[in-house]
Design goal:
With 177 residues, this protein is mainly alpha-helical. 59% of the residues lie in helices and 3% in strands. It has 8 helices and 2 strands; from the N terminus they run H-H-H-H-E-H-E-H-H-H. It has helices spanning 4-20, 24-39, 55-73, 80-89, 109-115, 130-140, 147-158, 164-176, and strands spanning 103-105, 119-121. A two-stranded antiparallel sheet has the order 1-2. Helix 1 runs antiparallel to helix 2, helix 1 packs across helix 3 and helix 4 (80-89) packs across helix 7 (147-158). The longest helix has 19 residues, at 55-73.
């Protein structure tokens, strides 16, 4: 379980990045979903990175750091605001939908002990893809994506980036695991 001070520190850093994006739609979404985002895990299984409370924000900040390093190593081809937006938003569907959390506390000792499932998938969202949930969440809050931003986030599912942002995001995501 993550330390409450670490969760708070990561959340403050996350919020400061949101402020730099100058987007009322994104700020509104983050303000509305704040606590859910702050404490959400990134993954359900204890062998996967970010499977603790606050894991989503912690993992997102790590991916942002890696994305900046990769972009710098490849000649700084990315607009910083666009890169930050893509990284901050790419995994927002991990919290679930507006109405339902994707990950719920595990209530099965067998699943925890035998499978390492710290969280269980919400039965209402079983089979839902995190990328689809991200796009649904963004649409619910009126967050608009440019084509290159959409393609970059989609590249996490296809594993075939169609632009430099997608290459940077996919590489950072792979390195973060």
């Amino acid at each position: 379980m993550a330390d409450i001070e670490e969760i708070k520190k990561n959340w403050e850093q996350f919020e400061s990045i949101i402020d730099r994006l100058d987007s009322d739609d994104i700020k509104g979404m983050i303000n509305d979903l704040g606590e859910r985002i702050a404490i959400s895990p990134a993954n359900a299984r204890n062998t996967d990175k970010g499977s603790e409370d606050g894991g989503l924000v912690k993992n997102t900040l790590e991916i942002l750091k890696l994305s900046r390093m990769i972009d710098a190593a490849t000649g700084k081809q990315c607009n910083p605001k666009t890169l930050y937006k893509i990284v901050i938003l790419h995994n927002i569907g991990t919290i679930g939908t507006v109405e339902n959390d994707l990950y719920l506390p595990q209530d099965s000792s067998w699943h925890l002990e035998k499978l390492g499932m710290v969280y269980k998938i919400n039965p209402k969202l079983v089979g839902q893809d995190k990328i689809d949930l991200t796009f649904i969440m963004l649409a619910n809050y009126g967050v608009k994506l440019e084509l290159e931003e959409f393609q970059a986030i989609l590249s996490l599912r296809t594993k075939e980036p169609t632009n430099h942002y997608g290459k940077v995001l996919l590489a950072a995501k792979i390195l973060s695991n």
